[in-house]
Each structure stands twice: as structure tokens, then as C-alpha cells.
Amino acid sequence: MKKSHDTTPSERSPQVPTRLSEVLHEGVEVKLHLVQHYAELALLLVREILEDNVTSLCGPRYSRHPAESTLRRWGTNPGSIQIQDERVPIRVPRVRDVATGHEDTAGEARWSRWRG
User: Fold this and answer.
1) 0.85 cut: is pTM over it?
2) Per-residue pLDDT tens over the stretch 31-81
């Protein structure tokens, strides 16, 4: 009988994509795994929301900056989100306005519309 600690990671669960849009192109096994482990699905959603917000502020990753834009990607900070009763660690992207030197985590001013 094989013990759970004797299995390799690929035997335990399928490889989970890093963006939710990638899931649409994956097989049924990955989709079922995400349904069974909803915390991973929630984490994918949060990462995608953060990345989309930074992209809307700064433009696509590794692209040239338009002359009128002063916002730049500026690394990440450690953070966490609560999923049900569990705190899950996550890297929160930072945005910097190079004209003023002001830094926000994922465009903090833009998040105020979701806070109510």
C-alpha cells in the first residue's frame, strides 16, 4: 500500500495554472481539482484582479511607457487575503508615480471604489 507521503506532487494533484484564463484551455482534471480546492480558485481570481488593475494603471508588463503616463510597476509587498476562515499569503503588486515619488499597493486609490 502506498502512503500519501510516498506520492510525487504530480500524483497528488494536477499542475495548477497561474492565471484563471489559462484554466479555460486546461483539461477536465485541472478544472475538477480547482472545484475541489476552491481556495486555489479564489487565489487565482485575486491574483488576476490585482494584475489587471496594475495593467490598467501601468500598461502591459515589459512594455514601453507612454510619455503621458508616470505610473510604473514597483515590485511587490507581502500580503494576505481571507478565504473562508483561512488567511492565505499573497504578493501584492506596488505602483509608483515617478513624477511625485508616491507609492501605492496595486493602485490603492483605485481600490476605494470596491470598498464601499
Assistant:
1) no
2) 777 777 788 788 888 889 999 888 888 888 888 877 778 888 899 999 998
DSSP tag of 17? P
- Residue 15 CB contacts under 8 Å (≥ 6 apart), including other chains: 30
Alpha-carbon gap, residue 31 to 28, rounded angstroms: 5
Report the number of secondary-structure helices (H) and strands (E) in the chain: 5, 3
SS3 6: helix
